[in-house]
Design brief:
Structural class: mainly alpha
Order of helices and strands: HHEHHEEHHHHHHH
Strand content: under 5%
Helix content: 55-70%
Radius of gyration: 22 Å
Shape: elongated
Largest sheet: 3 strands, antiparallel
Number of helices: 11
Strand order of the largest sheet: 1-3-2
Number of strands: 3
Length: 271
């Protein structure tokens, strides 16, 4: 999916003025445990130092840990959606406590989700303040589009020669789902459908590492750039989605030359 040189829009918060510790203190950990029903981030699974454990039977891992992981995952998904829609604006600093209040959870799962986004390159840590959304320009987006083309296009062309038409036809519902998602005009809904279609195509190669690496680059390419008034419009999304159906038609027809041409248009906008 290529990305036009348009930026993000949305409403931010005054989170830059809120200070948060790099590591939660005892009071924060106790508060987080009381809210989530779990131990604080980074706490060991076993007993704390100094506790007497002689003669105590081993206890199963509490069910609350599963719930905690689920909360963190839900927050991570929500933050990724906010990045795609531009609600989290490039260059702005957001604190875990303020975002936690917005989502109705403690700061800990928000902080953990933000740390994951930092590993992915979406945000950067600002000591004692929070997390700044990374600003991206047209050049970086063009570079990501080129990387995607280098990774995916050769695989698509190889699969075009080896995968039978009936197997390609099975992907028709996913391609059509991208068109419906684009018609909704919601960038986050389309981004998810777009990744699902590309993931299904690459999965035909039988290489899990390829799917994982390509998916990471794809997600990065979907973050809107800074400096423009709005995220991608409905017309752009619909045009991009129809490229999926055109590609699938060419693959089913067994036309590798057309597939090559369409891939160039889809990843880089080349004629």
């Amino acid at each position: 999916m290529k990305y036009s040189a348009q930026g993000a829009a949305g409403t931010g918060t005054a989170a830059a003025a809120v200070r948060i510790p790099v590591q939660p203190g005892a009071a924060d950990a106790a508060r987080d445990r009381s809210r989530d029903g779990t131990r604080g981030a980074g706490e060991p699974d076993g007993p704390a130092r100094g506790e007497h454990t002689h003669g105590e039977p081993p206890l199963p891992r509490p069910r609350a840990l599963v719930q905690r992981s689920s909360v963190r995952g839900q927050i991570l998904d929500a933050l990724r959606t906010a990045l795609v829609t531009g609600e989290l604006r490039p260059g702005e600093v957001y604190s875990a406590p303020v975002l936690g209040e917005r989502f109705g959870v403690s700061a800990t799962p928000v902080r953990e989700a933000m740390q994951q986004l930092a590993l992915e390159g979406a945000v950067e840590v600002v000591p004692n303040r929070g997390f700044r959304v990374v600003e991206r320009g047209d050049r970086e987006l063009a570079e990501l589009a080129e990387v995607r083309a280098l990774i995916e296009a050769p695989v698509w062309l190889r699969l075009a020669r080896t995968v039978p038409a009936e197997r390609w036809a099975e992907l028709r519902p996913l391609a059509e789902a991208t068109v419906r998602a684009a018609s909704s005009g919601c960038p986050a809904t389309y981004a998810e459908a777009d990744r699902a279609f590309h993931r299904a195509v690459l999965a035909l190669a039988g290489n899990e590492q390829l799917v994982r690496v390509a998916g990471d680059v794809h997600r990065r390419a979907q973050w809107p750039p800074a400096g423009s008034p709005a995220v991608r419009g409905r017309a752009d999304l619909v045009a991009d989605a129809h490229e999926h159906t055109a590609l699938l038609d060419a693959l089913i027809a067994g036309d590798p030359d057309l597939v090559r041409t369409l891939l160039g248009q889809h990843f880089t906008g080349a004629p």
